[in-house]
Amino acid sequence: MAADALAIIPGAVLRNLADKLYEKRKNAALEIEGIIKQLSTAGEHDKIAAVIGLLTSDFAMSPQANHRKQGGLIGLAAVTVGLTSEAAQHLELIVPPVLNAFLDQDSRVRYYACEALYNIAKVVRGDFIIYFNKIFDALCKLSADSDANVQSAAHLLDRLVKDIVTESDQFSIEEFIPLLRERMNVLNPYVRQFLVGWITVLDSVPDIDMLGFLPDFLDGLFNMLSDNSHEIRQQADAALSEFLQEIKNSPNVDYGRMAEILVRRAGSDDEFTRLTSITWINEFVKLGGEQLVPYYADILGAILPCISDEEEKIRVVARETNEELRAMKSDQTEGFDIGAILIIAERELNSEHEATRIEALHWFSTLLLRNRTEFLGYLEGIFEPLLNALSDPSDAVVLLVLEVHARIAEEPHHFHHLVSYLIHTFHNNHVLLERRGALIVRRLCVLLGAEKVYREFSTILEKEGDLDFASTMVQALNLILLTSAELAELRSLLKKSLVDSRGKDLFLSLYPSWCHSPMATISLCLLAQAYNHASSVIQSLGEEDINVKFLVQLDKLIRLLETPVFAYLRLQVNF
């Protein structure tokens, strides 16, 4: 076949094609173009194939001087131009050696490969599409070429290929997407610009459904949002904004796969990436409907930390998204996994940020209110963390924890467990009792009823083995009883102990545990107007050892007698 080609192409032409001077190589290519036109007109395709073989083996693929390779590339382009409409049937011979030249170590060879492929593409147009993936892969690499001239030539070729693809009806997006997905992980800024450019162009073609394949390259686009180049960040953001708009207008969107990507990206160290991710999640929650139900827990896991983000814009969007998500009503039949959500809420109880802990507790309350039976089914695993949260440094968090516990404590055994735990915690942490005891007890009285709470405390403390702690605890409860506005009704009931059976029963319920503290006992008797018994208790104190603790409690009692709570007592004494 090589001999046939040598008989077709004059030796002088072949020598000029391998010459060091570009002009000679160019003129030789023009002569080859004329010869190929004659052969094509005569239908001599075997001879044309022989010429292509010669240009490939002896020139384009030659191991000799690089100008010989350059001549081969120019020659192959000339063959294509000479063939015009007949070129398509020879592309399988023409294109591979040109693509191979893209990998050559000599930048001039790579440059002429771009030029040759450009001229080939101009001739064959749509017939070129069958090589698209290979050409795209080559252009992707050339976009980051070390030689500026090669980059420029590659950009010209890239624009032409884009034009061909946008007007072609043979382009296969299904075959292209795996290659795009693989390339999206490249970090080179030139390659990233190249990729975003192609994504934008393909998305602009009405017949190409890029939105349907968005989950395949969405993560790569988000990865570009943190690129060092401002231009790349802008391009990626523009592409993402366009896709989000398309999602809003499309009835068929695969929210699930993309939700997984967005959740990961919402935890990015890059602020812009977090903001974009949480913005997308916000829109997904509004648009996704039932598709997103299985992903609620993952989405919540992304939202809650962002509620405490340093960036205000992120906090605002995260809070709005959280409220949208919590407002949605789903049940088990729709794939709603309450257990997974409770795991996320429990995890965020340990967040260092108060705002996140507060929102986690709002989720406990919401789930307990809407899905009480299912919630209680998971109580064994979350009750302890909820109890531990009562030691939170934030008063706002503690108040919300108490609200959750109050809802749980509607069942008697849960209520008993709660009060027992509080007493145990106060026993081990006297500082908590001093700083938070009044807040916790008062709030529980509001939520569950003061009488119920005090009766339970009294029942448990009556059997307390640590008498010093029992005395301290009773003194704290007594002070709350006498001074807190929330317990005004309880005080009124105790004042009627001598004339009201309910008041009497309450007095008798509190009295055994109040006996752990003589001063508490006296104040309880005075409050209940059981003056004779109060007098007996006071007389019995003469038998007690007078120590500093005793004197401190006596001083507190005297001060209490001067408060408005005992105004009626002072009046009775005066009259």
What does the model show?
The chain has 575 residues and is mainly α. It has helices at 2-8, 11-17, 22-42, 45-60, 66-83, 91-101, 107-124, 132-142, 148-167, 173-183, 189-203, 214-224, 230-249, 255-265, 271-287, 296-306, 312-327, 338-348, 354-370, 372-377, 379-388, 395-408, 412-428, 430-448, 450-461, 467-483, 488-495, 501-514, 518-527, 531-540, 548-561, 567-574. The longest helix has 21 residues, at 22-42. The protein is rod-shaped and about 135 Å long. The mean pLDDT is 90.
Summarize the structure.
By secondary structure, the chain is an all-alpha fold. It contains 32 helices and no strands. Helix 3 (22-42) runs parallel beside helix 5 (66-83).
- What structural class do you assign from the helix and strand content? mainly alpha
Please mark out the parts with pLDDT under 50 across 5 or more consecutive residues, or reply none.
Answer: none
Spatial shape: rod-shaped
Mean pLDDT, as a whole number?
Answer: 90
Main beta sheet: none
Task: Give the beta-strand count.
Answer: 0
Query: Which percent range describes the beta-strand content?
Result: under 5%
Query: Terminal Cα separation, in Å?
Result: 135 Å
Portion of residues in helices?
Answer: over 70%
Return Rg in Å.
Answer: 42 Å
Number of helices: 32
What labels describe this entry?
single chain; 575 residues; mainly alpha; 0% strand
